[in-house]
Amino acid sequence: MTRASAGGRWRWWAWAGAILLAGGVVCLARDVERWNAVWYVPAWYGYLLILDAVIHRVAGRSPLSGSPRGVIGWMLWSVPFWFLSEAYNLRLQNWYYVFALRSPAAAALFGVAAFATVIPACFLHAEALRALGAWRDGRCRPRAVTPAAERAVLLLGLASIAAPLLWPRHAFALVWGATLWIPEVVNRRAGRPSLLADAEEGRCGRLLRLLAGGLWAGAVWEGFNFFARCKWIYTVPGFEDWKLFEMPLAGFGGFPVLALAAFGFHSLVAPLSSPSALRSFRGRVRLVAAAAAAAAFTAMTHRAVLDRTVASRRPLLSELRGLAPDDASRLRDRGVPTPERLHRTASDEGLSRLSGQTGIPAERLAPAVRHAALALHKGMGAPAAALLEAAGIRGVPDLAGASPEALAGRLHPLALRAGVRPPRAAEVKVWVRAARVSGQPRR
Predict the structure, then answer these.
(1) 3-state class (DSSP) for residue 381
(2) What is the mean pLDDT of residues 182-207?
(3) What is the pTM of this model?
(4) Among 130, 278, 330, 404, which is most exposed with the fewest C-beta within 10 angstroms?
(5) Three-state DSSP class for 132?
(6) Residue spans per domain, the chain
(7) pLDDT tens per residue, range 366-419
(8) At 359, is the secondary structure helix, strand, or coil?
């Protein structure tokens, strides 16, 4: 049997994934209200379903077909795993979110659904490489893990936990080791799957597949994120200028390490929900206690992320300057339900024609369109755009000529007087740099 025919016909979830992916793309391209903001989740799930189906097609077996319970476990543990990174980012401030959903319940569900894919994405891409034969029999020289080497790994783990909190501007890269080094030592001692144990036995295939799979997953992640409305933007100190999508080029080196950290973390916690553990009362108690602690930690961190890492919410027509209370309804009746559509329609058809079609005077539409253009630029949102206008920035071309540091200083007192969150200097740098590319609004 050839590898191409190993899995027989395409499994049903390949077609379900294709529908989800295509539906997400259509909602984004057509700016379908509300759905354009959440397109990332159905598109990403669709992509992962297709990837699993490809694995099954090539190898005759895949994580979803072989162990759906295991995949659910990946997803459940993925949420607290990623929220640990979010907790660190409250101190590091290396990324922030824009155009978050306005409903707290919807935002929570969206976040859980998105972050539940982190571990599956890392593992599925590594499994795809394995199915394709990459490093399947990878061998390397065995490396003895001496007590001294083990102590060094433990010290590196402690440094990875503490240093990013103590020196966030200089030690932020160590954060990816917070869930890697100490779990690796614990896993090796307990006889669980471990990269250290692989090194002792001269097996390097899993390590190489995780590294390459993590980079592959990261490239797709960032590509999807770049086109999203609700998305993240990086502000890593010293790496703001050279970016691919929203990610600094050097930052792609973090994805392979993220995959290793996901493996170490999952090997540590997976035994809690194993069938053998659940057969005993003590095992069930441990799982419940761990799940409760993970849920409490996730909930507290999510609340802090909404307060401190989310920089903007989806803008609404009713927030735009110049529009009267009933103008939003007139625009909706014309098929212009969002600031995105307003800006696009005004650019394509002109203010005069839009004014004639809606009955809204052009002198009311003009400031609303300018406000929309600013609000959409790099996801700053309507409140931040209003602050820029109060500071004398009437459009993206004006923003291109501003000094980020000076502008951030001018916006701070204006924000305090308006009762809104002052934009961080790093956010203002993102706006100004993007404006300098073409002088036009950039998403």
Answers:
(1) coil
(2) 95
(3) 0.93
(4) 278
(5) coil
(6) 67-308, 317-438
(7) 999 999 999 999 999 999 999 999 999 989 999 999 999 999 999 999 999 999
(8) coil
Contact in structure between 126 and 259 (CB atoms under 8 Å):
yes
Query: What is the rounded CA–CA span in Å between residue 258 and residue 180?
Result: 9
Q: Which residues pair with 33 in a beta bridge?
A: none
Residue reference for tokens 């890269």: 173
Whether the Cβ atoms of residue 70 and residue 49 lie closer than 8 Å to each other: no
Task: Tell me if residue 243 falls in helix, strand or coil.
Answer: strand
Rg (CA), the chain: 24
Closest by Cα among 232, 241, 10, 236 to 118: 232
Residue 306 CA neighbour count, 13 Å, CB half = 16
Query: How many Cβ atoms from other residues are within 10 Å of residue 121's Cβ?
Result: 27
Main-chain dihedrals φ then ψ at residue 132, nearest 5 degrees: -80, 0
CA distance 292 to 148: 36
Positive/negative CA dihedral, 380, 386, 392, 394: positive
Q: How far is CA 45 from the centre of its chain?
A: 13
β-pair partners for 310: 97
At 102-147, the pLDDT tens digits run: 999 999 999 999 999 999 999 999 999 999 998 887 788 898 899 9
Tokens representing 403 are 């000094």
Three-state secondary-structure class, residue 170: coil
Q: CA 20, CA 40: separation in Å to the nearest integer?
A: 10
- pLDDT for 291-338, tens place per residue? 999 999 999 999 999 999 999 999 999 999 989 889 999 999 999 999
Find out whether 402 and 391 touch, Cβ atoms under 8 Å: no
- Is a pLDDT exceeding 50 seen at residue 1? no
Distance CA 336, CA 376 (A): 15
Among 240-244, 281-285, 384-388, 414-418, the least confident range: 240-244
Query: Contact at 8 Å (CB) between 370 and 421?
Result: no
Q: Distance between the two ends of the chain, CA-based, in angstroms? A: 48
CA-nearest of 28, 229, 202, 216 to 124 is 216
Which of 106, 120, 16, 22 lies closest to 68, judged by CA? 120
Cα distance between residue 429 and residue 404, in whole Å? 5
Phi, psi of 234, deg, nearest 5: -90, 145
The three-state (H, E, C) secondary structure of 270-289, written as one string:
HHHHCHHHHCCHHHHHHHHH
